[in-house]
């Protein structure tokens, strides 16, 4: 397993790459491929904010999905998902 900082950077790079691939698939009209890439993007984003076990726990999955939507809205990157660390108190 990668150290936390490296895991975060690798997740970010993967999210950027998947976002680019999804946009390319949409651009050439491959809607099904774009949907599959979107599902992969969602999985990576959820795991990056909730940990590896997020997808196996239904309660956590919904909570992290809502958190992800808030983070995406706050990030100002319309159409893209860039998980950001929530501010610490």
- Please report the distance between the alpha carbons of the first and last residues: 28 Å
Helix content: 55-70%
Main beta sheet: none
Count of helical stretches? 3
Structural class: mainly alpha
Topology:
Blueprint: H1 4-27, H2 31-50, H3 58-75
Helix pairs in contact: 1-2, 2-3
Describe the structure.
The chain is mainly α and 89 residues long. The protein has helices at residues 4-27, 31-50, 58-75. The protein has one domain. 70% of the residues lie in helices and 0% in strands. Helix 1 (4-27) runs antiparallel to helix 2 and helix 2 packs across helix 3. The longest helix is centred in the N-terminal third of the chain and has 24 residues, at 4-27. The radius of gyration is 13 Å and the shape is globular.
Question: Can you tag this structure with a few keywords?
Answer:
single chain, 89 residues, mainly alpha, 70% helix
């Amino acid at each position: 397993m990668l150290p936390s900082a490296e895991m975060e950077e690798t997740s970010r790079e993967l999210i950027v790459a998947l976002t680019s691939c999804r946009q390319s698939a949409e651009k050439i009209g491959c809607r099904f491929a774009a949907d599959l890439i979107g599902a992969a993007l969602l999985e990576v984003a959820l795991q990056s904010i909730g940990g590896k076990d997020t997808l196996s726990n239904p309660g956590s999955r919904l909570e992290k999905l809502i958190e992800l939507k808030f983070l995406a809205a706050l990030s100002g990157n319309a159409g893209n998902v860039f998980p950001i660390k929530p501010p610490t108190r």
